[in-house]
């Protein structure tokens, strides 16, 4: 197929193309617009709640004047695998970013106690430092952010639009192909910022909105960008254990709620000195162990200082909608929540490809190491979004030769992608979840490679969004499986059950070594 060279005049252009409309994409668009760039923000979302940021509950961690204390907590929660320089970028920029953008520009009214902010605490934080609005902080941040950007003259937002491929020429990214035309509509951009969010759709159950198919990671990888730490997939310990699970914020445990097994016993003190406030990976595995051993785990709200419905009205409503009686304890189970790895970026969100940036959950900044500290994701998206948007300013769009996508074969029935997705989520959930074994990881790699072969055969001649999402999910699942196979150290969210069992077996007990 001959490459096509549309004239720049005919094609859509932008100084900065942002892909994704969560907090990272919004922050990137804002920063680029403040630098007088013409910004095009494209998003698959048709409404704010299609972005994970809108679903964020607990809040946004801040430094309260002491960056070092937050830094220490992040490093410790990460199993000391976070990059200290990246953490410095986060903590040193946290207070200014929150004040400038969230408070002064968007006017977010975080909860207060008297004249002070009502800082709350979540697991593995050594102090109360989390700004929040009820337990629905995300929507109180994202919706004003989108409204604000809608009023900014040099920002155009294109909703219900997916990017299918990046446009790359000699190591530089020049924009993307959108799905607004069957063979892909080009947008030529001076710089392109990926902010496509997480990977929840790869798992049977996740706390992410549907459509979280790792698009930015897959597109960047296929264009040749480096990815990092893909094995560290974080599970939240407390999703409501119902058919359509929903998150029960760590703020509940921060306010005193306790975990009990099906025998009514509080178990977390047996697993970690910080009990319910231990790092998230530790609590998630403990909850799963207790479910396996006793049949279930509940979140006991009795110890809360104030009535649940007053402290967390939106969660009380969600429980009521699902017929859960919170007085009896809320049944919980771990659920896929966040990818700590992603497209490798530096402190300004620059990827290994020229003029390609990434921010938010699709990016690997190095801040999370092997396990993310609670309520740092909105902050990371905000800080890196702003820094990427600022750094991406100043490049002119350039039209390049590119290959149109083929859309020559008849559409596939809707169920086609659904059936393949089912195969993908089953193997990813079974073998690349909370507990892994080397045999399971290898078998997942085999299944996923075969699946990718099938999916590629179809995407060669069809451009439906469902197929591209399936392709992206498959690419990301393979990246997770490969990273898991290459890492034989059981650490943080990458928990190798066989490694751990072998280590325990070969470690002499006190009696044996006497
Ligand atoms: C929560 O509210 O527990 C989630 C916060 C987070 O994922 O950082």
What would the keywords be for this entry?
binds succinic acid; FAD/NAD(P)-binding domain; 17 helices; 7-stranded mixed sheet; Methane Monooxygenase Hydroxylase, Chain G, domain 1; 514 residues; 3 domains; disordered C terminus; 4-stranded antiparallel sheet; 39% helix; alpha/beta; Flavocytochrome C3, Chain A, domain 1
Molecular structure report:
The structure is a single chain. With 514 residues, the chain is α/β, with parallel strands linked by helices. It folds into 3 domains: 8-232 and 340-391, FAD/NAD(P)-binding domain, CATH 3.50.50.60; 240-336, Flavocytochrome C3, Chain A, domain 1 (Alpha-Beta Complex), CATH 3.90.700.10; 414-499, Methane Monooxygenase Hydroxylase, Chain G, domain 1, CATH 1.20.58. It contains 17 helices and 18 strands. The strands form 5 sheets. Strands 1, 2, 7, 8, 9, 10 and 17 form a 7-stranded mixed beta sheet that branches. Strands 12-15-14-13 form a 4-stranded antiparallel beta sheet, with helices on one face. α6 packs across α15 and α13 (414-431) runs parallel beside α15. It starts with 11 loop residues before the first strand and ends with a helix. The structure holds succinic acid. Residues 57-58, 249-251, 374-375, 377 line the site of succinic acid.
């Amino acid at each position: 197929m001959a490459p096509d060279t549309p004239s720049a005049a005919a094609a859509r252009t932008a100084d900065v193309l942002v892909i994704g409309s969560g907090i990272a994409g919004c922050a990137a668009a804002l920063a680029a617009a403040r630098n007088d760039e013409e910004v095009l923000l494209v998003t698959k979302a048709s409404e704010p709640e299609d972005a994970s940021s809108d679903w964020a509950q607990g809040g946004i961690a801040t430094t309260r004047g002491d960056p070092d204390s937050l830094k220490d907590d992040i490093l410790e929660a990460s199993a000391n695998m976070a990059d200290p320089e990246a953490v410095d970028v986060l903590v040193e920029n946290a207070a200014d970013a929150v004040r400038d953008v969230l408070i002064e520009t968007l006017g977010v009214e975080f909860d207060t106690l008297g004249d002070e902010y009502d800082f709350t605490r979540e697991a593995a934080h050594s102090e109360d430092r989390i700004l929040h609005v009820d337990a629905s902080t995300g929507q109180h941040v994202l919706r004003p952010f989108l409204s604000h950007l809608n009023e900014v003259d040099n920002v155009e937002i294109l909703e219900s639009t997916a990017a299918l491929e990046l446009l790359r020429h000699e190591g530089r990214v020049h924009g993307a192909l959108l799905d607004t035309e069957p063979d892909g509509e080009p947008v030529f951009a001076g710089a392109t910022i990926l902010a496509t969010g997480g990977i929840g759709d790869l798992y049977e159950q996740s706390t992410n909105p549907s459509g979280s198919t790792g698009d930015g990671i897959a597109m960047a990888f296929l264009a040749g960008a480096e990815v990092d730490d893909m094995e560290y997939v974080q599970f939240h310990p407390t999703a409501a254990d119902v058919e359509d699970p929903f998150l029960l914020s760590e703020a509940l445990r921060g306010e005193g709620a306790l975990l009990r097994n099906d025998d009514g016993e509080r178990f977390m003190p047996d697993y970690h000195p910080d009990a319910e406030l231990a790092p998230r990976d530790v609590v998630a595995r403990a909850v799963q162990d207790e479910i396996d051993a006793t049949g279930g785990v509940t979140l006991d709200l009795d110890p809360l200082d104030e009535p649940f419905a007053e402290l967390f009205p939106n969660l009380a409503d969600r429980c009521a909608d699902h017929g859960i009686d919170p007085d009896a304890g809320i049944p919980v189970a771990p659920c896929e929540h966040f990818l700590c790895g992603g497209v490798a970026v530096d402190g300004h969100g620059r990827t290994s490809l020229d003029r390609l940036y990434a921010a938010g959950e699709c990016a690997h900044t190095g801040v999370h190491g092997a396990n993310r500290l609670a309520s740092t994701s909105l902050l990371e998206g905000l800080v890196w979004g702003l820094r990427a948007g600022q750094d991406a300013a100043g490049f002119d769009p350039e039209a390049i030769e590119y290959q149109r996508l083929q859309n020559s074969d008849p559409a596939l029935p809707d169920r086609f992608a659904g059936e393949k997705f089912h195969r993908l989520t089953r193997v990813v959930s079974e073998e690349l979840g909370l507990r892994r074994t080397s045999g399971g990881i290898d078998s997942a790699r085999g299944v996923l490679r075969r699946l990718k072969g099938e999916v590629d055969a179809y995407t060669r001649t069809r451009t439906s969004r469902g197929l591209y999402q399936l392709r992206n999910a498959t690419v990301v699942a393979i990246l997770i499986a490969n990273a898991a196979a290459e890492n034989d150290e059981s650490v943080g969210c990458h928990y190798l059950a066989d490694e751990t069992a072998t280590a325990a077996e070969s470690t002499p007990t006190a009696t044996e070594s006497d």
